[in-house]
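Q: How would the structure tokens look for this protein?
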Amino acid sequence: MNCFINKLELVCLSAVSGILVAANGHAAEVSSFGVGSMESVDSTSTFPRFTHAGLHYKMLDVHAGLAVTATYDENLNLVRSNKLSDFVFSLNPLLSIRMADPAEAEPSKSLGLTYTPSIERYLSQSSLDRMNQGVNFAALLPMPRLRLGITQSFTDNSSPVVDVQRRVNTQTYGTMLSSSYILSEKTSFEVNGNYNLSQNEGLVSTEEYLNQNWLNYVVTPKVSASLGLGLGLNKTDQGDDQRLMNLLLRSSYRLAEKVNVSISAGAEVRDYKTGGMAVDPVFSASARYRLSENSGISFTASRETHASVALVRQNYTSTGFNLDLYQKLFDRLSGTIGFGYDNLDYQSTAASLAKTRSDSLISANLAATWSFTDSLRSTFAYTFRNNTSTDDRLNVHESVISISTSYLY
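A: Here is the predicted structure in token form.
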């Protein structure tokens, strides 16, 4: 897993083994298995939708894949001096199983499971050899007015952490319970619950509970607006509990398949056991514009606060954006270029709420994919990441080159 980690408050440009499973249970095919077009995945589903044939039998849908990747990383432990470089070879299988009635209109009742292990072998640093794991389960029960869903995820991986200048084993567990109810043709509401546990070897482990509720209104067939209220509790094994509340406005705009924009913004209040309290603006935004059948642009931006897993009794506020361009160059050749920026401001959770550090992360990546068939592809990618910090020890950079061949059935 090649991620640039800043205090384990991480910015990942690839998933453990080719499947990126978001916290809300949605999933998308990523570069290890290739994306045939910007529409390869149905983003409204709680489970991956593959355009590849796969195996179908009555209510059963099965997809399998395998990606083989060779990577050169010139700064394995993300240090400023005495860098350690190596070649990494990884074997990334994929198994996706979904049960749903094909005769039912979408969204239909469904159960799904994905398993994405990643076997990593280092050419010189054999002590870093490891098998990472990723599992995601999703279930959906739609009714005439009520829709219920549950997702459960688990990951087990090892990644470098800037502050301790070594790799750290991390296990994460995530559960989401979702529900929506249609009140009228234009009005609906959602009640959602999230539980996330992150266990970080030798560092701070965190546990978060969050209830997020939305009142939705369809303004026009293309525009919707929502008012949200969230309540939560964040616990750490080496610090103090934090109670949080947010008030958000959300809006989305969709113009057929060409334009899709979603924005949410508001304020979050955090109440610390030590007596301090912080009020911060928060937002998230995503936009996708399909320039033509063969090209597109996507943009995401966000600002959010989390408890640090590397510094005791400290939070960090992350503000950043990512811009990605996709272009099909020839019949079988496509290219992507991406740029990202993140600013992380750290502050104490003590009553003084003093600012302790600020980091800025810049990342850029280029990738070219040759499609032998719809299922068999090879990708060459280059990624550069640079972290600038007010703590001089943490001014580090990393270059990563990889070649991957994948087959998805």
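The two ends are 23 Å apart (CA to CA).

Residues 25 and 151 are 5 Å apart (CA to CA).

Upvote if useful.
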